[in-house]
Model the fold of this input.
Amino acid sequence: MASWIIHLRVAQQLYQQLQIEPTDMFVLGNIAPDSGVPNADGTGFIPDAAISHFRSIDENGIKRIHEDLFIKQYFTPRHRSSYTRTEEAFFLGYLTHLLTDQLWARDIVYPAKETQSALFQTNRALFWQTVKKDWYDLDFLYLKANPTFEAFRIYRENPDIKNTYVDFFSKNAFEERRHFILDFYARGVADIVEHETYLAKEELDHFVLSAAKEIADYFKQLPQYSSAFL
Done:
């Protein structure tokens, strides 16, 4: 849902504020849920978001991420007590991704549907094409203005990116996704030209800070959370 740079920007706020280590595994966890492979007709991914993002779609077409199901499967106090610091950081990052997507839907997607309701109602494909192009263009502009962006550098240079954490992705899924993401942003930054977008840079800055604060507060309310992160 949120772009990869937004996920990394939120991740950086959190690992800096909460002293999360190892940082590289937390960063990896923040991108890991988007490691699916496009299906044959290009309409979705394998595994589906129902698996990778613990997402359901109700009878009205409303999508919802169930982070509680992720916690039950991977992040209960019992799980956390058995994890190494590396494993805990990875799964905390995965949870962060799910929470960030929820907040992105609430604070960015739903308002866009309201402000561009005519386009959304008449041509949803064009609506998504329009807003997503702006989201990624804003990513490209951010990277162009911040070439030393730390979380992106950590993600790019992480030497240990094999999947040993979740069985619904292949062992090489994270590495394959990284190659795609790095190439995607390299081409985008090279081609980007400053232009007006429906979503202001300042709105994205506000989203990153507010999302990080809300997620940090969520972490602090996890039952029996004993990690030194907090």
Summary: The longest strand covers residues 55-57.
